[in-house]
Specification:
396 residues, alpha/beta, Aspartate Aminotransferase, domain 1, Aspartate Aminotransferase, domain 2, 15% strand, globular, binds pyridoxal-5'-phosphate
């Protein structure tokens, strides 16, 4: 009854864990949820006010398929101002979250059997989006010894004459890895030599620490810009996950085809959310920086406290709000009924024994690790890490 295409798709691990966490919390379990991929700060007040005004002004109808002119003009201005990227309003599409923009871009570019290179560990949905397009996923290890970044040589080896696309996430979910301008240049050189397209997911652009400077992949030069789809959104920088607004910018032909697909799925993004997103982009950006500072403080706290736990090896993330400890030393150990063979077992053990949710690395196609989100209060992070340490200590 179910189509073969859907049968090959896995449910999002993070969504699955989040659903489990909501279920347990509503059953009254005292749970520390370190699995979430969203800022815990409320959406800034002025953005909420803009949405209320939009409702009062009856901005409640379908918008243009690609998004309102006002929002797309503001996005074009942002890309110019902050990323040194010039796109016309028509080269921008607003979607229902960056996720829909990514999905549409993958379906637009990838044909059956074409190869898509995905640095791994990777965001849970990339692989499934490629499978949906019937493309062939080629994983390239972004290993811990290189701070979870791919080596250019590994990328080179993975490229064949059938390679169509590279899916890059910078900064990266789940590792917080960050590619600087020089590293991006090396990747861009290979991309151009081999005539490959790139979708660069820059949704964590604003969440960078240690004063490092962001460089948008497409801004490297005009040639690379033509081969790139820039994806970004409002969920993470403005704490607007539930509003579901993201966007993509690229060559006209790509954007027009993404719009065609969107016209038959969601028609357009929510009108009220688009008005809120417009306010987010066109007003003072103080709240973005305040949240970033908050995340940096929590990143430092999470890193310092996790490195104290015997058996964990931790790379300090440069961006996003995740930390990805190596937990391999606990494999083969057990406590009471729990035998830990892999990251999934360990996540279940921590859920049941420590009442802490984390996401197993296997969800990101990287066994041997767990992902913890530090988008949580210091109190919760402190309590969560204490509970994890206690539970891990019981494993013998
Ligand atoms: C790397 C990455 N890309 C895209 C998304 C989707 O973001 P949105 O809420 O805009 O759909 C997420 C959300 O977790 C993400 O981590």
């Amino acid at each position: 009854m179910i189509s073969n295409r859907l049968k090959s798709i896995d449910l999002s691990t993070t969504m699955e864990i989040a659903a489990k966490a909501i279920e347990l919390k509503s059953a009254g379990v005292d749970l520390i949820d370190l699995s979430v991929g969203e800022p815990d700060f409320p959406t800034p007040q002025h953005i909420k006010e803009a949405a209320k005004n939009a409702l009062d002004n009856n901005c409640t109808k379908y918008t243009k398929n690609k998004g309102t002119n006002e929002l797309r003009t503001a996005i074009a201005a942002k890309l110019e101002r902050e990323n040194n990227l010039h796109y016309t309003t028509e080269q921008i599409i607003v979607s229902t979250g960056a996720k829909q923009a990514l999905f549409n871009a993958v379906q637009t570019i990838v044909d059956k059997g074409e190869e898509v290179i995905i640095p791994t560990p990777s965001y849970v949905s990339y692989i499934q989006m490629v499978k949906f397009a019937e493309g062939k996923v080629i994983k390239v290890d972004a290993d811990e010894t290189n701070r979870f970044k791919i080596h250019v040589n590994s990328l080179k080896k993975a490229i064949t004459k059938n390679t169509k696309l590279l899916l890059l996430c910078n900064p990266c979910n789940p590792t917080g890895a960050f590619y600087d301008k020089d590293e991006l240049k090396e990747i861009a050189r290979l991309v151009l030599e081999n005539n490959i397209f790139v979708i660069c997911d820059e949704i964590y652009e604003k969440l960078l620490y240690d004063r490092i400077e962001f460089c948008s992949f497409a801004s490297l030069n005009e040639d690379i810009k033509k081969q790139t789809v820039v994806v970004n959104g409002f969920s993470k920088a403005y704490s607007m996950t539930g509003w579901r607004i993201g966007y993509a910018a690229a060559e006209q032909n790509i954007i027009d085809n993404m719009a065609k697909l969107q016209s038959h799925s969601t028609s357009c993004a929510s009108s009220v959310s688009q008005a809120a997103a417009l306010a987010a982009l066109t007003s003072l950006q103080d709240s973005v920086e305040e949240m970033r500072i908050g995340f940096e403080y929590r990143r430092n706290f999470a890193f310092d406290s996790l490195t104290q736990i015997k058996g964990l090896s931790v790379v300090k993330p440069s961006g996003a709000f995740y930390i990805f400890p190596n937990v391999k030393s606990f494999f083969g150990k057990s406590f009471q009924n729990y035998a830990v063979k892999n990251s999934h077992d360990l996540a279940l053990y921590l859920l049941n024994e420590a009442k802490v949710t984390v996401v197993p690395g296997s969800g990101f196609k990287c066994e041997g690790y767990i992902r913890l989100s530090f988008a949580n209060s210091i109190e919760n992070l402190n309590e969560g890490v204490l509970r994890i340490a206690k539970a891990l200590n019981k494993l013998k």
